[in-house]
Amino acid sequence: MEDSADSLSAKGAKRLVVVSNRLPFKKIRQKGKVKWVRSAGGLVTALDPVLRKTGGVWLGWGGDTPRQVHNRKVNFYDAGEAKSPGFEGNYVIGEIPLSEGEIRNYYRGFANSVIWPLFHYFFEKCDINADQWKSYKEVNHIFAKAIVDFAGPDDLIWLQDYHLLLVPEYVHRMRPDLKTHLFIHIPFPHHEILSVLPWHVEIMAGVTYAASVGFHDKQYLANFLISVQRAGIGKTDRSNSLIRFGEDRICRLYAHGISIDFDHFNAVSRSDEARKHTHRLRKRCAGKKMVLGVDRLDYSKGIKERLYAIEHCLEEHPELLEKVVFYQIAVPSRQNVKEYRAIRSDIESLIGRINGRFSTTAWTPIHYFFRTVPFAQLVATYRAADVGLVTPLRDGMNLVAKEYVASHSDEDGVLILSRFAGAARELKTGALLVNPYSAEEISNALYRALTMSPKDRRHRMRRMRRVVEKNDIDNWLTACWSSFHGENTSIHKKKQIPNTVGAGL
Ligand code: GDG
After folding, report:
1. Is 267-470 in the same CATH topology as 2-258+474-483?
2. Strand ranges (E), 355-403
3. Which fold has domain 2-258+474-483?
4. Nearby residues of 116 by Cβ (< 8 Å), 6 or more positions away
5. Which residue from 236, 306, 399, 443 lies 20 to 30 Å from 313 (Cα-Cα)?
6. How far is Cα 255 from Cα 371, in angstroms, rounded to an integer?
7. What is the mean pLDDT of residues 304-309?
């Protein structure tokens, strides 16, 4: 990110306004005092460095759930007020207040119990419910109103993800002079899956009011175009990935996979703090190989299936007993949603059973951490791990896979990666790709990774590191910026995103 960030102001935009369901900080009240705590997740990892660099505004919900919201006014906090460890940015956060009922129906309900499972192909987990759909529309309207109340026509309004799919239409209806752009961070499913949703045509129509819509993968874009065509929305121009609406409106689609700040992960992995931590972890493993999983605790991440695969591997290869340790970091996520509580309890009892079955007085196979670890420790843990086990059942991209690679500044380590993660397209030249539903495939890949020659490991890791270094977060941003301005998006690494954007509020 060093000399990144260019082009917004160069192209006339005064201010970057990122809008997402959640802010990058969670508001916590302790003894009457407000404290902001950093949240973990792919979107924050990707966009926080951008806003730190460019300045601007991040609008979203802060995590508070009052019974009722009496005043819909957005509360703005600057970096000083929202000060918390790790927040040195120069951007402003705008908190959109939402009530307990709105969060229950719009966020836990429609967004996370309908769109999330459906778009990840778990349609049997969908809880389709008209009241929640109504709430989704209302809250999208609240977000749109918050935007139109303060945004200027030169602002670059960048909406994030599946929570806000109707915001482009609502903003357009209130303020046709404002342009919105949307990036969808999760997979966009095939039409057969999407059409399970009774309101999919309304959703597709709402999205196409955005001036640009970004996806991680060209398959997601193709799925989107097919659904738009089937719904008879606008006039699709497939060769240019456009949807035209008469003479005055175009929705431009592009596919470019999100990434990470490779240089930062690489540098932190070499820092004294991280090196010490890596060393401590390696010492604790005492000659054993270390295998690592890092995920938000979500059924889409395939943690349960991964645990069955570990059990299968220990059964098939008794020579691995006492020779390998599995670390699983599971970041608490959406614990108020029923499915998420269930998956946590399934995972914890499965770990208990596997440990009970294989542990010896000197060895416990699986070490489980249900918490967020600080950034430098996370990087050090990636670096300490001989094998990164990233096996989501379905994932828009998956940044953990890229972070594992970027943190291996020693050019060692093996990545086992689900073929259903967006990241597989980029990392397939070095990773061992697996079907995450197959315990046997994961187990075979694990055995192969644990017995791979140092030469092969290095060769594969170098290839992946070249890819992640080239396609880093700057490269993604450059592609997004270009699409905002209707330019060709096939971009190679060129640090050209401006650092002169934000005028603040
Ligand atoms: C969505 C899409 C897409 C995890 N544990 C800790 C921690 N993390 C950070 C990781 C990583 C992020 O959380 C997880 O990112 P993912 O990409 O794996 O997954 P989602 O949260 O599901 O993100 C996904 C992403 O959006 C971006 O578009 O890739 O497909 O589902 O950055 O580092 N961070 C810290 N401590 C932890 O313990 N500090």
Report:
1. yes
2. 366-369, 387-390
3. Rossmann fold (3.40.50)
4. 162, 186, 300
5. 399
6. 33
7. 98
Structural domain boundaries of the chain?
2-258+474-483, 267-470
Decide whether any atom of ligand 1 lies within 6 Å of the 330 Cβ. no
Residue 41 burial (CB count, 10 A) = 16
What element of type H or E holds 314? helix 303-316
Query: Is there a contact between 260 and 402 (Cβ–Cβ < 8 Å)?
Result: yes
Are the CB atoms for 346 and 304 separated by under 8 Å?
yes
Beta bridge partners of 16: 156
Element (H, E) at 330: strand 324-331
Q: What is the pLDDT of residues 359-417, one digit of tens each?
A: 999 999 999 999 999 999 999 999 999 999 999 999 999 999 999 999 999 999 999 99
DSSP state at residue 301? G
Task: Answer whether 119's CB lies under 8 Å from 189's CB.
Answer: yes
- Residue in this structure with the two tokens 């927040």, named with its chain if needed: 87
Structure tokens at 291: 């295998």
Q: Which of 296, 389, 393, 425 to mutate to test the pocket of ligand 1 (most atoms within 8 A of CB)?
A: 296
In this prediction, residue 89 has a pLDDT band, given cuts at 50, 70 and 90, of low
Cα(446)–Cα(291) distance, integer angstroms: 9
Q: Which two tokens stand for residue 129?
A: 């419910």
Residue 204 CA, ligand 1 centroid: distance in Å: 26
Give the pLDDT score at 498: 35
Q: Which two tokens stand for residue 220?
A: 């997601």
DSSP state of 362: T
The hierarchical CATH code for the domain 267-470 is: 3.40.50.2000
Q: In this structure, what token pair is assigned to residue 278?
A: 């890596």
Residue of 446, 172, 152, 197 lying closest to 308 (CA atoms) = 446
Model confidence at 226, pLDDT cuts 50, 70, 90, reads very high
Q: Is 403 in the pocket of ligand 1 (CB under 6 A)?
A: yes
Is 395 annotated in the active site? yes
CA distances from 164 to 125, 132, 265, 279, 462 (A): 21, 14, 30, 43, 38
Long-range Cβ contact pairs of 432-436 (< 8 A, separation 24 or more): 434/391, 436/302, 436/305, 436/306, 436/391, 436/392, 436/393
Spell out the SS3 assignment of 39-103. Answer: CCCHHHHHHHHHHHHHCCEEEEECCCCCCCCCCCCCEEECCCCCCCCCCCCCCEEEECCCCHHHH
Q: Is the CB of 331 under 6 A from ligand 1?
A: yes
Q: Are 156 and 12 in contact (CB under 8 A)?
A: no
Q: Which atom of ligand 1 is nearest to the CA of 258?
A: 28
